[in-house]
Design goal:
Strand content: 15-25%
Oligomer: single chain
Distance between the termini: 17 Å
Order of helices and strands: EHEHHEEEHEEH
Shape: globular
CATH architecture: 3-Layer(aba) Sandwich
Strand order of the largest sheet: 2-1-3-6-7
Helix content: 40-55%
Largest sheet: 5 strands, parallel
Number of helices: 5
Radius of gyration: 13 Å
Structural class: alpha/beta
């Protein structure tokens, strides 16, 4: 079972983050769209062991806080980390208790924040 669900529509960003997380010892499941991520979360066998969800802020067919609310409705205790280059997007997530990271996000910072998120719910 994967530790991390990583969601990004950019193949380059997805591949780089996946490699970073795998090198840090995480098992990673990837999705390239909001629709694909939601389908994965509906599959109990796939998603029951998730420890954190890492998503881009803007995805085709989904955006910001509404997507995070949908993620949380399916896995309400799993921490969510949002990574974006849109510095003005953070207020959209007020009250959702997410971890908000700005691009570029150094690998060591991403790993640290993911571990902190996991530790908070452990």
């Amino acid at each position: 079972m994967p530790d991390v669900l990583l969601i990004d529509d950019s193949p380059v960003q997805l591949h780089v983050r996946e490699a970073v997380l795998r090198s840090a010892g995480f098992s990673v499941l990837t999705a390239t769209s909001a629709e694909q991520a939601i389908k994965l979360l509906h599959d109990e066998a796939v998603s029951s062991g998730l420890r954190v969800i890492v998503t881009d802020h803007v995805l085709p067919g989904a955006r910001g806080d509404s997507f995070v609310r949908e993620l949380r409705s399916l896995r309400h205790t799993v921490p969510v980390v949002v990574v974006t280059g849109m510095h003005d997007a953070e207020p959209e997530y007020a009250g959702l208790e997410i971890i908000f990271l700005h691009k570029p996000c150094p690998p060591e910072h991403l790993i640290l924040r993911i571990r902190q998120a996991i530790d908070r719910v452990a």
